[in-house]
Design goal:
By secondary structure, the chain is mainly alpha-helical. It folds into two domains: 85 residues, Multidrug-efflux Transporter Regulator, Chain: A, Domain 2 (Orthogonal Bundle); 67 residues, no CATH class. The protein is globular and about 45 Å long. The N and C termini lie far apart (46 Å). The relative contact order is 0.11. Keywords: DNA-binding. This is DNA-binding transcriptional MerR regulator. GO terms for molecular function: DNA binding; DNA-binding transcription factor activity.
């Protein structure tokens, strides 16, 4: 898992095993299990025999953690703090809403996940979410708009 090589593209799948995530992110499986303990944002689903299944947004988060630790030289604590500073909106998004969505759009999910990791996350996520269509997003959109108004005071 050479860090000099570019990471492969993430396939359009809903769930990934720890082995697949290891290959997609360029880190060993034991490192992923350790990061689950250190970064509370990483919570893969566990099924049969405690097998881990990561969702698309978690793969993006792991790549972000890898970038902070390996490329930018952050410590675990520093990376955790950086993600916490950028993660206000990450606690607002309910993964259950995404899991029940029949029209899963990988590109929109990736844009939203990237937006969650940026400093201006509440504003970016509010813009990335559709303004019409699925009413399941209405409460989230309202919450994000109220957060944005509080932050702009």
């Amino acid at each position: 898992m050479d860090r000099a090589l570019p990471l492969p593209p993430i396939p359009a799948k809903r769930y990934f095993t720890i082995g697949e995530v290891s290959e997609l992110c360029g880190v060993k499986p034991y490192v992923l299990r350790y990061w689950e303990q250190e970064f509370t944002q990483l919570k893969p689903m566990k099924r049969r025999g405690n097998r881990r299944y990561y969702q698309h947004h978690e793969v993006l988060l792991i790549r972000r953690i890898r970038d902070l630790l390996y490329d930018q030289g952050f410590t675990i604590s520093g990376a955790r703090n950086r993600l916490a500073d950028a993660g206000i909106a990450a606690r607002v998004i309910d993964p259950a809403l995404l899991a029940d969505d029949e029209e899963f759009d990988v590109e929109a999910d990736e844009q939203m996940s990237v937006a969650l990791l940026k400093k201006d996350a509440p504003v970016a996520v509010a813009r990335a979410m559709p303004l019409s269509g699925n009413d399941a997003y209405a409460p989230i959109r309202e919450e994000l708009l109220s957060i944005r108004s509080l932050l702009s005071l």
